[in-house]
Amino acid sequence: MTEFLQLVVAGLTTGSFYALVALGYTMVYGIVRLINFAHGDIFMVGAFLGWTVLTTLAATHMPWGIALLLAVILAMALTGGIGVIIERFAYQPLLNAPRLSILITALGVSLALENGVLLIYGPGFSTYPHLVSTAGFVLGGAQISYVQIGIIAVSLALMAALYLFVHHTFIGTAMRALAVDRDAARLMGIDVERIIQITFFVGSALAAVAGVMEGLYYTQISFFMGFLVGLKAFTAAVLGGIGNIPGAMAGGLLIGLLEAFSAGYISSRWTDVIVFAVLIGVLVIKPTGLFGERVVERM
Amino acid sequence: MIKPILTAAVPLMLSLAGGTAFAADTIKIGVPVPLSGPYANAGIDIVNGGKLAAAKINAAGGVLGKQIELVPEDDGCDAQMGVQAAQKMVDSGVVAVAGSYCSGAALPELTALKRAGIPYVLDAATNPKLTEMGVTTVFRTIGRDDEQGPFAAGYMANDLHAKKVAVIDDNTTYSKGLADNIVASLKTDGVDVVYYDAITPGQMDYSAVLSHVATLMPDVIFYTGYFSEAGLIAKQAAALHIKAVMMGGDATNDPTLIKTAGPGAEGWTATTAPLPQFLSGAKGFVTDFTAAYKTAPGPYSVYEYDAVDVVAKAITDANSLDPAAITAALHKIKGFMGLTGDITFNAKGDRETAVYITVVVKNGEFAPGMMLDPAGKWVSVQ
Prior knowledge:
Number of helices of chain A: 11
Low-confidence stretches of chain B: 1-23
Mean pLDDT of chain B: 89
Oligomer: heterodimer
Strand order of the largest sheet of chain A: 1-4
Number of strands of chain A: 4
Structural class of chain A: mainly alpha
Radius of gyration of chain B: 21 Å
Distance between the termini of chain B: 47 Å
Strand order of the largest sheet of chain B: 7-6-8-9-10-13-14-15
Low-confidence stretches of chain A: 294-299
Largest interface: A-B, 42 and 41 residues
Number of strands of chain B: 15
Largest sheet of chain A: 2 strands, antiparallel
């Protein structure tokens, strides 16, 4: 029972990172039908930008709480901006081109981001300061830290905020209109390009939060950290039903739990095999995912 | 994975374009190490160690009246890139090769270099297979995993008095080889191996595995992979309040582990070939290296220094730049005093005497731990 609880906590923590990144995959797919394979690397860029801001502010002897808050906000804004720039120059010219062109461009953007960070920050590991304590409490024999609770809470709150944004604001309504029919939305006077850019901004900013949290929690960040997380988050988005916001969240948490249980009860060497077997299984048996909706109503 | 294929293709195209220009005025020695990817720092340290040796030799007039030129190549710690790196070095006309970091890359490099008849002196790849395949052109200035295995097992059994040990590897050639050796030696020493399985490197979270291992109540958890995962494991084990002694092999002996794990690194014990700062012959090397590169020499640079040095000695002895003659001269090396001690190669190309020590993280840095004296007693490293 103790081990089971411990695995649930570990799974929900990693699952929260996957879920936040999966939200970006799912939003972008919902709006422009693009699987943005560079999204995992945007998460990585977010982690590095957060690290840069945090270490720069640390040099000014600012209180850690404020520095951290500024780091998260600046990382979100900058990463969101990079998302918009990528959309403007890499994807927008290809929005009406065949699907394959834009998919290959996404892979190119992914490589460009990885190698860009490699050139700027070097090939070694960068280390976040050890800010978060390992303090926590024991529940049923399992060791649960406050940070883990915090990570899960932050990702749930952000998902809820995103859901409200999409369903209860004018921009959100425009997003959903775009998801149904881009041309009809344009005819109704919606500024399609701007809405797409807002989608990229929000998705990238969420990935940046995940990146900074991952940096704070694990402390170790590197230029290739986005690859595996990106793949897992994509799997989460597909599992939940790509284009579906609560689905991405549930998919992320499920992948996290699946990883933890397979590592704890079977063998850690099998976790990736199991996760990607699930992806293939879902695509074969239920291509719309667990929460799959009618194809046209994706948000 | 698309990334390694793309990165491997570019050096190939460059090597085709570069052609085979043999420079007559220098003696080229290849240095294949990871210069990109997660282990690039270790590779750069190794190249810098080799450069110090080349500079010393060149300042003393070179070898056979010619200057030594090192040719570093990026093998990315990857089998495929290793083959490309070996081919590039052959194409650029190296007469010998002194380098390596990952056994997984060194194995295919060795195969390619053997085909070209070029001797390969390993400085950091410790997998026994490298010198066990009957290749006559391979040598090694460092110990082997099957020497480290019994040492590590002996430390756990006799110094820590461990009854139950969990062994975790990362499925790479080096890590799996070392883990197999440790498990076999633990069984010989009568210690119970309660867990033996692999993790996948690159996943950030190992707390699921660690919580499972914790339920088996081991006295020691021994991880045989590299420092990046070891740092995460140390940190997460501390967060789970795991009481077992955390240990690792020589690839965990890297300051990155301490930076990643922070306070969680305290007590991490690594079995390793002696670091230059713990070698009586290498005091000057540590000073020179630190002055030249503004950083500590890392665990392997001194073994690369000796590898380059011993190759230069073999070229002098052979009085020839023919790789076959250099190989023959390397086989005859007896009692060469390197910075790491007496270098005498046995029939397989391994050193006759390889020493291991333990290092322990204390107050945020690696401090010398224990070693086995010639009488078989555990004593503190001075």
